[in-house]
Design brief:
mainly alpha; 6hp_glycosidase-like_sf
Length: 101
C-alpha cells in the first residue's frame, strides 16, 4: 500500500486516526458525549496526531482508514514501545552520539 503507519511521516499516512484530539476541531465547544458526530464524519481529521503509531495492516497488508476501525486506526503506547526501545538502543550505542560526550 506504500502507506506509513506513523502519522505525519511521509506523503501517505492515516487520515482518520481514532483519537479524540485528532478528530475533533481545536476550536469546537464540546461536552463529554458530543464527540460522536466527529467519530462518524467522512472528513479527514482536522488535527494531525503527529508521531502516533496506529495499529497497522492485517496479515494480507490491507488497511481500512476509518475512525470506527479501532483495531487498525487507534494509536496506542504498546504499539510504539518496541520502536522506541529499538531507537533508544541505537542512540545509546551510536558512535555519533558518543562523539558529543
Amino acid at each position: 500500500m506504500k502507506l506509513s503507519y506513523l502519522v505525519g511521516y511521509g506523503d501517505k499516512y492515516p487520515q482518520f486516526v481514532h483519537h479524540r484530539g485528532a478528530s475533533i476541531p481545536a476550536d469546537a465547544s464540546t461536552g463529554c458525549s458530543d464527540g460522536w458526530k466527529w467519530l462518524s464524519s467522512t472528513d479527514p481529521n482536522p488535527n494531525v496526531a503527529m508521531g502516533a503509531l496506529v495499529g497497522g495492516p492485517f496479515k494480507n497488508d490491507s488497511y481500512v482508514d476509518d475512525r470506527n476501525n479501532t483495531m487498525q486506526t487507534e494509536p496506542s503506547t504498546y504499539n510504539s514501545a518496541a520502536m522506541v526501545g529499538l531507537l533508544s538502543g541505537l542512540v545509546a550505542t551510536s558512535s555519533v552520539v558518543q562523539s558529543f560526550n
